[in-house]
Design goal:
The chain has 321 residues and is α/β, with parallel strands linked by helices. The protein contains ten helices and 13 strands. Bound molecules: nicotinamide-adenine-dinucleotide.
């Protein structure tokens, strides 16, 4: 049995990862302060231990590492709204968290760290599809959005070059727009579902109009949560030391196409009012997944099926505020 610590384990990726790790008979410790995640996302299990802790507090991190073999480090402030509204918190959690973890692994039983980075490190990449060798950039120090991408770049550097991490295996993954039920509300898919719901008077009308950021021709490559978790488990078993892997889906779609899928499923038709893109938001995102596919990864869930499950969850859980 492997003893695995998941920081950020009550969050979206974390809670889904924890479910799978427990199912596969690992001993799992979750470390989270529930800033965004919730213990309700985690099912009780005898092989699961919950620690309500803050990654910025060194002693709490040290105490969580007893007998741990593998760490998935996911704790971070995620959600675009926070990057603009609270950049100093994003950096505090991001950078102190990583430094604490690396300090704490010294003299511990930890053999491997698997770190969550992000596609945001590429910002506006020179090449699409984007592979892991494309440079990481921070285009504008003054733009608060880059508190997130900047902290992820620093995390990658800290993990690769920290003295205390020398003797352990290090794997970095860069997720590209993972989505699914209960992913939080501060992401494009839940935002669009919510807008369509309210624009059509709770789906009672067959038409309405919604405002979006940008022209709608911007693209993303959305990856359903189960495929993302498959990738993480694969990286744990097959990922190579000191390597970086994109994770996601290489099917690129525009925001307009995304809206079409959602309105078709909900049997409504909305007109789109375009706006300026928020500063620093990239126009296209599409990962080159060759590296993880070489380990045996295959996407199993297509966008229609993934969206259906996601839309059903959001319509059921929408808040009338
Ligand atoms: N979801 C995606 O598409 C995506 C894309 C790129 C990168 N990532 C990265 O993957 C990881 C997981 O993302 P997610 O979508 O599950 O986000 P999430 O916000 O749902 O999960 C992050 C978790 O970290 C916890 N956390 C925040 N501050 C903390 C602190 N001080 N101490 C302890 N825990 C703290 C939150 O409570 C939350 O449960 C993050 O590192 C994120 O940056 C996710």
């Amino acid at each position: 049995m492997t003893n695995i610590l998941v920081t950020g384990g009550t969050g979206f990726l974390g809670s889904n990862l924890v479910k799978r790790l427990v199912k596969e008979k690992n001993n799992v410790t979750v470390f989270d302060n529930n800033f965004r995640g919730s213990i309700q996302n985690i099912e009780n299990n005898k092989n699961l231990k919950l620690i309500n802790g803050d990654i910025r507090i060194l002693n709490q991190v040290k105490n969580s590492l007893k007998n741990i073999d593998v760490i998935f480090h996911l704790a971070f402030i995620n959600g675009t709204k926070y990057f603009y509204e609270n950049p100093s918190l994003v950096m505090d959690v991001g950078i102190k968290g990583m430094l604490n973890l690396l300090d704490a692994v010294k003299d511990s039983s930890v053999k491997k760290i698997i770190l969550a980075s992000s596609s945001e490190v590429y910002q506006t990449p020179k090449q699409i599809p984007t592979d892991e060798n494309i440079e990481c950039i921070i285009p504008d120090i003054k733009n608060p959005r880059f508190s997130y991408g900047g902290s992820k770049i620093i995390n990658e550097l800290l993990l690769m070059h920290n003295e205390n991490a020398k003797l352990i295996d290090k794997i970095i993954f860069r997720p590209h727009n993972v989505y699914g039920p209960n992913m939080g509300w501060e992401h494009v898919i839940p935002e669009i579902i919510k807008k369509i719901f309210f624009a059509t008077n709770y789906l009672k009308n067959k038409s309405g109009s919604i405002e979006i950021q940008g022209s709608g021709n911007e693209t993303r490559s959305f990856c359903y949560i189960e495929d993302a978790i498959d990738s993480l488990l694969l990286l744990n078993s097959q990922g190579k030391n000191n390597e970086i892997y994109n994770i996601g889906n290489d099917n690129e779609i525009s925001i307009r196409e995304l809206i079409n899928y959602i309105q078709e499923y909900l049997s409504v038709e909305v007109s789109i009012i375009t706006n300026n893109l928020s500063k620093g938001s990239t126009k296209r995102r599409n990962p080159n997944l060759k590296k993880i596919k070489n380990l045996g990864f295959k996407n199993k869930i297509n966008i229609e099926d993934g969206l259906k499950k996601t839309i059903d969850w959001y319509i059921k859980n929408i808040k009338y505020d």
